[in-house]
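note to self: the first set is below, dont mix up w the second
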Amino acid sequence: MNITQDLIHLVAPNAAAIANGQKISAHHDFSGLTKSEDETLIWGECTGSGKTPYRTSIDFLDSEKPVFRCTCPSRQIPCKHALGLMFDWVAGKSFSTAPIPEEIQTKRDRKAKRENQDGGAAPRPKKRNAAAQTKKLKKQLAGLDMADRMVRELMKAGLHTLAGTAVKTYENLAKELGNYYLPGPQLFIMRLVQQMQLLQANPEGEAAHFQNASTILVQLASTIKKARVYLAQKLENGDTTPDDSVLFEALGGVWKLEDLKRIGSYRRDVRLVQLSFDVSFDEVRREYIDRGYWIDVDSGEISQTLSYRPIKALKYVKEEDTTFSLATVPEAYYYPGDLNRRVRWDACSLSPLTQEGIAQILGKAQPDIATAVKAFKNQAKNTLSDKYAAMLLPYSQIGILNEQIVLQDLAGKRIVLKDLPGEDGRSTVTALSMLPGAADAGAMFGILFYHEQDRRIYMQPLSLISSTEIVRLRY
C-alpha cells in the first residue's frame, strides 16, 4: 500500500473535500487508527456531527482500485473522512495492527466469489437496439438537412446579417437541434451566436469577432457536409455501432470504454507522466473543463485527459487534479483523432518519477521546430481537428528578439512564444520571463497555435524539462 499526497489528490472528488480531509487530520478527529498485518486495509473511527463516530475504512487489496467505506451520510466517494484517514497515514501517525474485521472480510469473500464465477471476465457489453439506433441516425440526417439550409442561407447573405432578430432565429435553431441528437452541430451554432452577441456588446472588436465567427461557420459547414455522407453510409450498410471516425464524437456521440476496446483503440501497461494541468471555463457550455496533458514515456505520444463539470452538477462530478508522479495504467483507452488524442482509464498506480524517467521524456522531444510545425499544419488542414497542438520541443536557448520572447532549437530555427488568445491574467509567457535559469538548454512543452489576426504560428509555453526536473508554468 503506497498512500501519497498525489494519490489523495487523484482520488479526491474536489478541492473542498481535500481541504476538509486535511482539517480532520490536523484536528486529530480519528481514534482507533488500525491497519491489517499485510497493510492492505486501514480503518478507524472519526468524530463527526452524528451521535456516534463514523466508521471509516480503506481497502487496498486491489491497489489500483481502492475501496472506500464510511458510515457517514455523504454521497461523495471518497468522503472527507476517508481522505482524512489517508492524510493521517501520510502524516506518519501510529496505526496499531489487528485482524481484518469480519464484516470487511465477508465483503472481500463475496467479491472474490463473484469474480471466480465469471472467470474474472469483464461484464458483457449491453446489446444495442439496432432499430432504435437506425431511427436515431435518420433523425440526425433530418436535423443536418435543416441546419444545412440555414447555414447556406447565412453564407449567401453574409455574417453581417446575423444580428438582432436573426440571432434569435439561430438561438432557436440551436435548441431545435437538441431534438435531433446533434449536440455537436448545436454547440457550433451556440458559439456562432455568442460571437455575434459579443460583437453587439463590443463593436470595437468587430474584426476579431467576425474572424472567429467565420472560422466557426466553416467548421460547422464542413461538419454537416462530412456527417451527411458518414450517416448515409452507415444507414446503407446497416451499421449502427460507433467506429473509429472522429465524426462520431463531432456529432455529439459519447464514447464508452467497451466501444473503444471493441475497435481496438486501447493499450495495456502504459506509463504516463503529466506535463501540464489546467482548469478553464466554457461560457457557452456553462461548464468547467479539467485538462491534463500526458506523455507516454515509452512511445513519446502526448495525449490529454478531459473532465467536463457542468455548473448544474458541480456537486456530483469529480474534480480532477494535477499529479507529478509516474502513472502506470493497466489499460488506457484512446479516442479517435490526430495529435493529442483524448485518453481515459479506470485505474492506475502511482510511483515517484525518477531521473531515468525524465531522461526518457527528454528523448521523446520532436527533432526540431520545423518537424513540429509540419505535424501541426497537417492536423490544422482538417476542419474537424483542433487548431492547436501540444508539442515537446528541444531548445538551445530562450531569449528576447525584437521585444518578443523566442525559443531557438538545436538547428538554429526560432519560434515566438506567445499566450493563447483569452489568457488574460494567466500568462505563462510572463511566468517564463520571471523563471531563473529558463534560458538553459533542455526541452519545452507547450501549445502550437495559429493566430488568426497575426497569421502566424506561435507557441504557448507550459512546462520546462531539464535533466533533473519538470518545471510547470501553470498547474
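second set (the one i keep forgetting abt)
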Amino acid sequence: MLQGSVLYCMNAFMEPLCAAHGWSRAGINISMGIASLMGQFAMPLAAAVSTRCSLRRLTALGALAGGVSIALMGMTGDIRLFTLLSIVAWISTQICGGVVGNALVSNWFYHYRGRAFGLANAGTSLSGAILPFVSLVLIRYFDVSTAYLALGLATCALAPLAWFLGRDTPQAMGLHPDGRRHEPRRSSLPPADVSFSHLLRSPQAWLLGLAFGLALMVASAVMSQMKPRFADLGLEAYPAMLLACASAFLAALAKYAWGWVCDRFTPLFAARLVMLCSAASLALGFLPSGIWTMTAFSLSFGGCIGGLWAILPAVVSYYFGGGNFLPSYKFISIFIILRSAGFPIMGLSHDLTGSYAASDVIFGVSLLASLGLMLLLRESGAVESAVRRHAAAHATEAARPR
C-alpha cells in the first residue's frame, strides 16, 4: 500500500496533478526525488532502530504514519507541503515494510529465504498492478483528493493487521526457521566482521551497494511512469494504464521466480542474471512504437526488474551471513540513495526533449555498469557459500551406497 501509493500510483496522478495545480512533470519528479532520497536516508536509520525495537510495533507505527500522510497529500496545492508529506510516506515505507519487513523475513526463513523474500516483496509490485488503475477510476469519477484519501485510509488499516499478526522471531513462539524441527546449520568459519568501519574498507560491500543502487534507480524511475510513457506514444488513458499495471503484475510474479533462482543456484548468480536481463528488456523501448512493441517492453521489463528487491536482501544475507543481516543491510542501504536520482533524470529528459529516450540511454548504461560491478564479486567471498558447499558434500556422501 505504501510503496504503491507513493511510487506506482504516480502513473495515475502525474498528469492530473499537473493539470490541477499547474505543476510541471520535472517539478513533480524533483519532489519525488527529494522524498525518495529522504526515504533512502531512513534505511540505515530504520535498520539501527530495528535492532533495538520490536519489529511488530515498528510495522504498525509505519502504517499509521504513512496512511495519514498519503491521505493529506491530496489536500494541498503547495508542492512544498506535498513534498514534505511525501517524505513522511517514503520514510514509512522503510518502517512498515522495507528494512523492517526484510528483517522479519530474514528471521523466519533460512533454506527458503530467497522465495520468502520474493513473496514478501511481491506485495510492492502487486500494488502497482492494482492501485494505479483504482486511482485512475477514482480520479475520473471524483477527484485527486478523494483518490489520495482512499489510499491513505486503506494504508492505515494495515496497522491493526500488523499488530495482531506480526511476531518478531519464530523462536519467540517456540518454532524454528522454515517451519523445521531444528535450527539451521550455521557456518563453521569465524564470524564475519560487519562493523561499519570494516564495511567502509570492504571493496565487496562497495561493489554490492553501488550495483544495486544503480539498478534500483532505473527500476523505480521507469516503473513509476509507465503510463505517461505509453500515453505520450499515443495510447489512450485506460490502455496505457493497463499496460503499466500488467508490467507491475509481471514484476510481482517475477519476485517469487527470482527468489527461486536464488535458492536453486546462488543469490549472486541471480543478481548477475537479473541485471543482464533488465538491460536487454530496456533496449526494447527503443524499437518503433506500436502496441506490440509497447506490450513486449512493458511485460519484459516488469518481469526482469521486479526481481531486484527480492534478490537484494537475499544477496546481503548470503554474502555477509544471515546473522549479520541488519548491520550489513544498514551499510548497503546507504548506496540505495542513488535510487532517488532516477526521478529527476526522467523529468528533465521529458521537459527538455519531449520524451524519455535520453533517460533510457542513461539507464541502460547504469544497468550494464551494475552487471559489471556484480561480476567483480566472487562466490568464494560469500560467508554462506561455505555452508552450502558443506551441505552439498554431506548430501552427496550420504547418497553413496555403503
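remember for set 2: The CA atoms of residues 14 and 28 lie 8 Å apart.
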